[in-house]
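queue> holo job accepted (adenosine-5'-diphosphate)
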Amino acid sequence: MQTRVKQTPASTQHHDGNSKFIEGERQRLAQEIHDGLIQELTGAVLQLEICEKVYTKDSSQVLAPLILAKKQARKCLHQLRRLTFDLRLTAVKELGLVKALRRHCDELSQEKSIAIAFKATKAEVELPLSIAGSLYYIVREALLNVTKHAKARRIQVRVSFDQQQVMVTVQDDGIGFDVEPTLAKAEEEKKFGMVGMHERAHLLGGNLHVLSAPQSGTEVTAVIPYAPDRSAAR
Ligand SMILES: Nc1ncnc2c1ncn2[C@@H]1O[C@H](COP(=O)(O)OP(=O)(O)O)[C@@H](O)[C@H]1O
Ligand SMILES: [Mg+2]
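queue> job finished
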């Protein structure tokens, strides 16, 4: 079994304003809006059109599509609230990184019916929002990848703090992948999920390690320094 580690070389650690993680973030948002909001709203409009058509013929037929349209509009509202909640990093600000991640894992575990074990070292260090927020997004993206690609049965998320740095790992027992060629191809296809995770980590003076091989599961670890004397840890 061959296991490969991908670490973006130091030469790519300088960034211009058109950062790929912003691009990745945009794509993720666009996807989420497309899969959720647009589909629900399209459904609602369709139901309202049915109402319009049947109203003059038989007004008793209006109720069912109307109720459905209301349900779909409510779903949209719920999704919009969740989206703005995520964008403002409300969970991280209110709960801190560890609790926010734990909650996300619980929600995702329920939503996708997959076991997610969450572990964190007891002593949580209070992190600047730039670090906590980035780690939160990195873990979310890594978990999204597991649910999208891995066919995993189990996921483990671990958060640990030492005196200098915070380390977060997302590990799955899924199908795994050949890291170098897959990520090169993903970048060519303008899929910036993983690239964005690397960038986020590098921007904070940290690193992202991706350990995977076909049939061997995947482990994604972000290590970010938070010691105040590190100028990179803004
Ligand atoms: N946990 C995982 N298990 C299996 N394959 C993965 C996993 N995470 C990422 N991949 C592979 O890496 C590729 C790149 O991921 P990413 O950059 O996030 O793009 P996307 O998720 O949009 O395809 C994925 O298309 C997939 O082939
Ligand atoms: Mg992805």
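queue> Helices lie at 20-55, 63-87, 90-95, 97-112, 129-150, 179-188, 193-203.
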